[in-house]
Structure formats: structure tokens, C-alpha cells
């Protein structure tokens, strides 16, 4: 009787073992496929992130300092009239500007670093414009630690100089307002638009087209980093002010 039961168990094992083996092999095959699929998704995600980062850095490098030769001419003028203190301050500001400009390879930086970069730019421009231009700047202390893409502020401000103040005569004003709200960072930069212009109608049209390139660059970078649904980017252009407003997650 015992031998019969042992024989039956043996037969049962012979029948079940291949089924269990096939099940285990199928499970292992599916598991390995799942791992391969996850690894492939990970590689694709890393490639996508690398490509996105490369695109952002490429857009950063497209922003070239328009004022370079003007800054050199201003420094040369200071040297000729022997204003040594202003000359040294101008050279230091220019060195700070280019150190930040070409040594920064981060996708995001603290706002306080961008503000320091902008200050060096404004100091250089002050050598050229002097008392003709008044800068009003408010930066909320709570916003200084917020991470933003580099060159955002500087590009907008450079546009104000290049396409605004340099194209007009008479006094002008630049307003920089940055505040951290509940869930987003508010950036508003506007410049006055004097009524008396020194450009022809054709030159004004060409200038407006060029102005759009730098701002479009900013919009593309913001969309790449935050996504289209997470940002606000608006431009208001009226008779008195040219205003750029940005909301990004804080």
C-alpha cells in the first residue's frame, strides 16, 4: 500500500514538475522583460533629460552681450579723462559680468546670483548713460533663494537698453520688481518709452523684430524647464511703457 502511494506521488510529481517549471520559466521571462523595459524607459528618460539640458545650455549661449564694445569705449573714455576710480570700478564690473556669463553651466541658479549678475551689468551701463537713466529696483528678500534659469533678468534688461534707451533721446527710467508670491515668483521689468525717437520707421520695425528674438529665447527656456502650463510670460507695449511680466514656480 505504501509503495502504491509512493508511486502515485512520484507520478504526480512527474506531471506537476514540468508545469511548475514552465510556470517559473514564464515568470522569469516576464520579469526579465519587465526589467529590460524599465531600463529602456530609464535610458530614454535620461537621454531626454540630457537633450533638454543641452537645448537649454545652447539657448543660454545664444545670449551674447551686445554692450561689450560700448562698455570698452566707455572704459576708454574714462581712461582718457583720468577718472581712475570709475575706471577701476568699471573694469571690476565687466570682469564680474563675464565671469558669471561664461563660467555658469547650470540650468537653474539662485535668484540672488542672477541679481548680482544684473547689478554688474547695470553698473557698466551706468558709465554710459549717467544721470540720463534712473533705475528703480525692488527685490523681495524672500525671493532670493528661489531657483530660476540664468540670464533671464539680464536678457530682458539688455533688451530695454538695446531696443529702448539706446534708440531714444532724453531721460528714461527702468523698473525692476521681483516678489515671491504663495506658489510662484513674480518678475516684472518695464522701461519707459520716450516720445522722441531717433530711428526711421523702417529701423523701428527691424528693431522690434530683433527685440522679439531675445524674449522668445527666454520663453523657450522657461517652457523647456517648467512646462507650458506652469509659466506665465506676457508683454505689454503701450505708448509710455514696455513691460515684460513672468510667473514661474517658486
UniProtKB/TrEMBL annotation:
The keyword Manganese does not apply. GO terms for cellular component: membrane. One of its GO terms (molecular function) is phosphorelay sensor kinase activity. It holds the Pfam family His_kinase. Keywords: Coiled coil, Membrane, Transmembrane, Transmembrane helix. Residues 55-133 form the Signal transduction histidine kinase internal region domain. Residues 28-62 form a coiled coil. The chain crosses the membrane at residues 7-31. The keyword Coiled coil applies. It comes from the Bacteria. PANTHER family: SENSOR HISTIDINE KINASE YPDA. This is GHKL domain-containing protein.
Amino acid at each position: 500500500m505504501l509503495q502504491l502511494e509512493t508511486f502515485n506521488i512520484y507520478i504526480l510529481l512527474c506531471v506537476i514538475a514540468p508545469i511548475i517549471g514552465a510556470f517559473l520559466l514564464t515568470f522569469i521571462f516576464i520579469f526579465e522583460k519587465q526589467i529590460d523595459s524599465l531600463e529602456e524607459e530609464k535610458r530614454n528618460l535620461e537621454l531626454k533629460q540630457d537633450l533638454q539640458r543641452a537645448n537649454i545650455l545652447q539657448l543660454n549661449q545664444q545670449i551674447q552681450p551686445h554692450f561689450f564694445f560700448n562698455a570698452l569705449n566707455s572704459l576708454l573714455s574714462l581712461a582718457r579723462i583720468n577718472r581712475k576710480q570709475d575706471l577701476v570700478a568699471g573694469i571690476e564690473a565687466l570682469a564680474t559680468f563675464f565671469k558669471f556669463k561664461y563660467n555658469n553651466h547650470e540650468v537653474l541658479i539662485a535668484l540672488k546670483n542672477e541679481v548680482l549678475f544684473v547689478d554688474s551689468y547695470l553698473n557698466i551701463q551706468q558709465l554710459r548713460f549717467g544721470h540720463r537713466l534712473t533705475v528703480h529696483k525692488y527685490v523681495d528678500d524672500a525671493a532670493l533663494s528661489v531657483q530660476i534659469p540664468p540670464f533671464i533678468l539680464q536678457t530682458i534688461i539688455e533688451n530695454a537698453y538695446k531696443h529702448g534707451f539706446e534708440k531714444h533721446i532724453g531721460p528714461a527710467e527702468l523698473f525692476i520688481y521681483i516678489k515671491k508670491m504663495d506658489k510662484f515668483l513674480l518678475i516684472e521689468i518695464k522701461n519707459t518709452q520716450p516720445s522722441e525717437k531717433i530711428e526711421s520707421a523702417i529701423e523701428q520695425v527691424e528693431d522690434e523684430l530683433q527685440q522679439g528674438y531675445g524674449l522668445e529665447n527666454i520663453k523657450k527656456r522657461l517652457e523647456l524647464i517648467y512646462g507650458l502650463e506652469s509659466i506665465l510670460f506676457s508683454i505689454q507695449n503701450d505708448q509710455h511703457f514696455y513691460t515684460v511680466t513672468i510667473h514661474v514656480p517658486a
